Structures are given as C-alpha cells and as structure tokens.
Amino acid sequence: MHQSTLERLVRYLRENVPMARHFDIQAGPVDDRGLVLEAPLASNFNDKQTAFAGTLASLCTLSGWAMTSLVCEDAGYQTDIAVVRSDVRYARPCTEQIISARCRWPAPEDAAAFIAELGERSRAVLSLDAEVHSQSEVAVVYSGDYSAKIL
To answer: CATH code at 38?
Structure first.
C-alpha cells in the first residue's frame, strides 16, 4: 500500500513541481527502514561529474515531504505539507548512477505525538531525517521539520 501511495505522491510532484520533473525524480522502494526517492546522476551532475548539491538537497527534502504525507494518510488525514526547517550536510561526493535519498520512518512515539497534535490543533510539525549513500558510505545527512495542516 505504501509503495502505491509513494508512486502517486511522486506523480503529483512531477506534475506540480517543475524541479521534480527536471531532476527526473522517481519513487524508490518503501520498506521497514523508510522510503526512497531517486534521480539519475546522468541528468543531475555538476562540473565535477558528481551529484549536484541542489539535487541532493531536493531529494532529501522531498523524501521528508513524502514521508510526512504517508504518516498523515495512514492516520486518515488529508493535509497541506511544507518544510519549515532543513539542514543538509555534505560528507562526501555522490557518484552513484542512481542517486537515492532514504527518509527514515519517524519513531512510533514521535509519529503518535504528531498525529495526536494534528487531531487536536489541525496543525503539527514532524521532524525527520534522511541520508544519501555513495560507495556504501554516507554522502549526505539531512534533517528537516515538516508542518502539516489539515485541509
């Protein structure tokens, strides 16, 4: 179920966010570790032939947006979501042919507190983390806060 939801969310992004279409963002797998958004290096490299920092930041940011969407939809809420804080650390160049940003599921207690506040106040903020790996090492570390408002 989560896989089809992520694919629908990526279609929405590609239709409504030109940058997502330009970077060729695709849905990766959803599993017990989290969800993955992907983009090909072939259309997202910089002058050093490594992944463009803007693509890396965007994949991480959008993976958090998608995760927040999944958490809200699992709870039965239709929401408007926006990133309200983000921090990106670039640890090493990314040379993977398919760039993959993995956003981890929030801890169960964090998700429960987020959903409870959303239900009580119609608005809540969820903090999430994402990473990009290259050559089996962490290349990018991301953290972001996502505001959700019930529609």
So the answer is: 3.10.129.10
